[in-house]
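Hey, resending since the last one bounced:
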Amino acid sequence: MPIPTADDINRWIVRASLDGADATAVLAGACERLVAAGVPLMRAALASDMLDPSFDSVGVRWTRGKGAVQEAFLRTTDAEADPEWLASPFHVLVAGRDDRLRRRLDHSYRPGEFPVLDEFRERGATDYVAMIVRLGEGMWLGDTRGVVGSWLSDAPQGFPDGAIDLVAQVLPPLASMFLWRSMQRSARTLMTTYLGSDAAERVLAGNVVRGRAECIRAVVWYSDLVGFTRIADAHGAKVVLAMLNDYAEALVESIEAQGGHVLKFIGDGMLAIFPDRDESNGCERALDAAADARRRLDALNATRREAGLPVSDADVALHIGELLYGNVGGPRRLDFTVLGAAVNEAARIEALCSSLDQRVIVSSAFVEAGGDAVRGRLVSLGRYALKGVGRPQELYTLDPG
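The structure tokens again:
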């Protein structure tokens, strides 16, 4: 088999990427070809920032004899003050002007400069090279300014100069592949974060045309925090924002645990749907979510009271009906949401929670669609007129027994 050249390896990286190979497969294949070309690799890694609410950066690491794995690093409150990051060779490259950092891990090495290199040396490594591929400003996405890579050898003499040159030639296409994959992941994460999982999948599948909407029948969840205006007037913005996040987290986790999709936060309100071909099952899941939300909110309020923080609660309305699910808005500014009388009726039902002194109210249409399994968990509140709705309807709440 002929010895691979840089051009051979680069062509393979591009082709494998276009064929859909993931970052672990591409890095593993590139490292195997580098080894075949005479590069004495023990370990290799690539990393870059991520635009993700939970993760600060993403990496892929190849180890000889073990293959490649992908890694994601949790976001911290202040990544710039993270001691581990500040003491890393990658930080030196990202923060500085040099594009390459090399340390021979032999008798000339000074322990303590980089703790991670001390560990590598103890594991038998003899040579370390880190490189960065920087992006032009037009390519930045969030904090992403480039891709850093590291290459480790345990050969007695370390890396020959020609081996480092070969790695340097291979790194740009590797970095391009890695950025492409990272940005795909970031795009999917951002869509899911801001639209919800179901709407995000629809948009990513190509539903980006204004006016394109699907008629669906689904359970509608409409909720609002109790006394939010009063609390906001009495406390500073930081306290109020933290409170909103606490209560939103409890509600979102309850909804998503039962397969619901949160579509929109409306100030301190929330709109979600539970689509299901089996309407009875959709109603059961929504009612389970409402009951679970009650438990979560009770626990949250106990914790907040103990900490001396303001407490609230959530009024929840559950309804079911025909909806338009898709894009609405201006030509260049769209919202992927649901529209229809059922949404308006759910909002009207939620508005009755305060006057009826109930935290969860469901409609007669919801009870009818849910069947006996749902009806047995509810008690009637009587018949009430809803603003803008033609005739009074019977409303229900969770049976406290």
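Residues 59 and 71 are 5 Å apart (CA to CA).

Sorry for the duplicate.
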